Amino acid sequence: MGPGDSDRCRETISWGRPGVPGRAGLWLPPPPPARSFPGDAKSTDVQEKAPAAGPRLEDIRRRLARAFQPALQHWGSRRAREEAAAAREEQSRARVEAALARLRAELLEMHFQNHQLARTLLDLNMKVQQLKREYELEIASESQSPKDNATNPE
């Protein structure tokens, strides 16, 4: 902007309140709300609807768009990196959950086998006890037999 441009700016600024003739205000009217950044997808829609700006404003708009372009690209690549990191984290979480599911299945299988072995051991113990009793009865009957034979001669 050159020194002559500031005079033109002063001429276009309204110092009075809108609708109140002859009264000078202390503040400028508030600027319209900003809609988006230059280069953003939403800004193209707004630009198409906006009336044609002067060549000076158009030049400023182009310069701002060029100035913010690397920041927008960096922001976009940062977002892509964050999304990739989130995807990797999700894959890692899925692998951990799958490994945990396999471990749970193996533990359940081992638990089942443990119960089977315990039953088998209990059955074997019962059979050993039964055989022991039968053997003791057999020995007792054999020891009683000779006495009976001696008392009963036939």
Folded structure, characterized:
It is rod-shaped and about 140 Å long. 75% of the residues lie in helices and 0% in strands. It has three helices and no strands.
Concise structural overview:
Helix content is 75%, strand content 0%.
Throw out a few tags for this protein.
154 residues, 3 helices, single chain, mainly alpha
Percent helix range: over 70%
Taking pLDDT < 50 over at least 5 consecutive residues as the criterion, the unreliable ranges are none
Strands, total number? 0
Note the run of SSEs as H and E.
HHH
Q: What count of domains describes the coordinates? A: 1
Content-based structural category: mainly alpha
Q: Globular, elongated, flat, extended or rod-shaped: what is the shape?
A: rod-shaped
Provide a count of the helices.
Answer: 3
* Global Rg: 48 Å
N- to C-terminal separation? 146 Å
Question: The biggest beta sheet, please?
Answer: none
Strand content: under 5%
Rounded mean pLDDT score? 76
What is the fold's blueprint, element by element?
Blueprint: H1 3-12, H2 41-49, H3 55-151
